[in-house]
Specification:
This protein is an alpha/beta fold. The chain has nine helices and 25 strands. The chain binds flavin-adenine dinucleotide.
C-alpha cells in the first residue's frame, strides 16, 4: 500500500489556480493530489466585465483547469462535491462517489446573496458567472426587441455589469438598463470614484436609483419602497457574495456570514487538516472583502501550508494588506483606479488593467 498522503482540492477558484501553478513548479512527490470542479475551466473575474462589454472573447478570460492539472501532475475530476464529512475525512460527489483525504482545501467561490423581495424565480444572480453569461447570451437572441434590465446592487460588480451591458448593446436604444441600489453607488469608495461612476452611467444612459430598496420583484417589474413600479424583464442580482451551497453543508466552524472560519494560515478553526481560501473562507480576526484579488494573494500561502500540512512544519501566515489597487471598468475602454482613498479615471486606467489582467492569464497558459 502507498504511504503517500492524499490531498484533495475542491473548486478551481483563483487561489487553487495559483496552488496548481506552484505544484507544477515545485511538485509534492509524496502526495496524491486531485482537483474537483464541475467545469474544466474557471473564469478570471478581472476580465469578466470586459467579456460582457465585448472587449474579450470568453476563452481569453478562462483558465484551463484541466491543462493546468496535467502540468501539475494533479488528477482533474470533473465533478462537483456535494457533501463533506470532516470526521470521516471524506468528500462526496453528486454521483455518490466518495473520496478519502488526509488534507482537503476548499476554494469554491460564492453565490449572489438572495434578497427578501424576491420569491427566487425572477432573478439572475451575477455569481456564478456562467449563469450570468448564459442569461446575457439568451437575451442576444432577442436583440432587436425592447428589453428592460435592472441590476440590484450598488457595488463595483453592479456598476461593471450595467456599463458592460450598456456598451455591448450601445447600438440598441430599445434596451433599457438600470441600477437600483438600497444605498449609494460605490459606497465606501472615494467621492471622485462615485462621481466618475455616476457620470459614466449618465453617458451610457444607465439609470441609477440610489437609496431605493426594492420591495418586491415580479416577473416583469420591480416594486420599489418609494411605491414606484419600474419595468424589468430581467432582474440581475449583484447583491454581494453569499456562501456557495456546499459550504452550508459542511460541519465546521463558520464565520457570521456562513463562510468557513480560518486562521491566518487559511486553516479551519475547527479541523487542522481542512483549509479554505477565496470567497468561501473568512478569518474572523482579520476581515477583508471577498474579491478575486485577495483569493489570488492567498494562493502562495495556501500552497506552502498545504505542503506543510502534508510534510509537517509551522504554518505561514497570510498577511492581509488592505491597500489593494481596485480598477473598475466603465464599459467602454475606460476605468476608475482606486487606491489609498484616491481615485483617478481614464482610458490609461483601462489599458493598465488590461495589461495586469493579460499578464495574470499568461501565467496559467
Ligand atoms: C461581475 C463580477 C465582476 C467582478 N470583478 C472583479 C474584479 O475585477 N476583481 C476582483 O478582484 N474581483 C471581482 N469580482 C469578484 C470575484 O469574482 C470573486 O471574488 C472571485 O471569483 C472569488 O474567487 P474564488 O477563488 O473564491 O472562487 P471562484 O473564482 O468563483 O471559483 C470557484 C470555483 O469553484 C468551483 N465550484 C463551485 N462549487 C463547487 C463544488 N461544489 N465542487 C467543486 N467545485 C466547485 C466553480 O466551478 C469554480 O471553478 C467580480 C465578481 C463579479 C460577479
Amino acid at each position: 500500500m502507498s504511504d503517500k498522503k492524499t490531498l484533495l482540492l475542491v473548486g478551481g477558484g483563483h487561489a487553487h489556480v495559483e496552488v496548481l501553478r506552484l505544484l507544477a513548479e515545485k511538485p509534492l512527490g509524496d502526495a496524491d493530489i486531485a482537483l474537483f470542479d464541475p467545469s474544466p475551466s474557471v473564469w478570471y473575474s478581472g476580465m469578466v466585465p470586459g467579456v460582457i462589454a465585448g472587449h474579450y472573447q470568453p476563452a481569453e478570460a478562462k483558465v484551463n483547469l484541466w491543462a493546468l492539472c496535467q502540468r501539475a501532475r494533479v488528477r482533474f475530476i470533473e465533478a462537483a462535491i456535494t457533501n463533506v464529512d470532516p470526521a470521516l475525512q471524506r468528500v462526496y460527489t453528486a454521483a455518490g462517489d466518495r473520496h478519502f483525504y488526509d488534507v482537503v482545501s476548499f476554494d469554491v467561490g460564492s453565490v449572489s446573496r438572495s434578497v427578501p423581495a424576491s420569491p427566487g424565480a425572477y432573478t439572475v444572480p451575477v455569481k456564478p458567472i456562467d449563469a450570468l453569461l448564459t442569461a446575457i447570451n439568451e437575451r442576444e437572441a432577442i436583440r432587436s426587441s425592447s428589453l428592460a434590465i435592472q441590476i440590484i446592487g450598488g457595488g463595483a460588480a453592479a456598476l461593471e455589469v450595467a456599463l458592460g451591458l450598456a456598451h455591448r448593446w450601445r447600438g440598441a436604444p430599445e434596451k433599457k438598463i438600470g441600477i437600483v441600489s438600497g444605498g449609494v453607488l460605490l459606497q465606501g469608495m472615494p467621492r471622485a470614484a462615485r462621481k466618475a461612476a455616476l457620470a459614466a452611467c449618465a453617458a451610457a444612459r444607465v439609470t441609477v436609483r440610489e437609496s431605493t430598496p426594492v420591495q418586491l420583484i415580479e416577473p416583469t417589474r420591480l416594486v420599489l419602497s418609494s411605491g414606484e413600479f419600474i419595468p424589468s424583464q430581467v432582474t440581475l442580482l449583484a447583491t454581494g457574495p453569499a456562501p456557495a451551497p456546499l459550504i452550508a453543508e459542511i460541519e465546521v466552524t463558520k464565520t457570521d456570514d456562513g463562510s468557513i472560519a480560518v486562521n491566518s494560515g487559511l486553516q479551519s478553526r475547527s479541523h487542522k487538516n481542512l483549509f479554505a481560501a477565496g470567497d468561501c473562507a473568512g478569518n474572523p480576526k482579520a476581515s477583508y472583502p471577498k474579491s478575486g484579488v485577495f483569493a489570488v494573494r492567498q494562493g502562495p500561502v495556501l500552497y506552502e501550508n498545504l505542503r506543510r500540512a502534508i510534510r509537517g512544519g509551522d504554518l505561514q501566515s497570510y498577511d492581509h494588506k488592505a491597500a489593494a489597487l481596485a480598477l473598475i471598468s466603465l464599459g467602454e475602454q475606460r476605468a476608475i483606479a482606486v487606491r489609498n482613498g484616491f481615485a483617478l479615471t481614464g482610458a490609461w486606467a483601462w489599458r493598465w488593467k488590461d495589461r495586469i489582467d493579460r499578464a495574470w492569464m499568461a501565467k496559467y497558459e
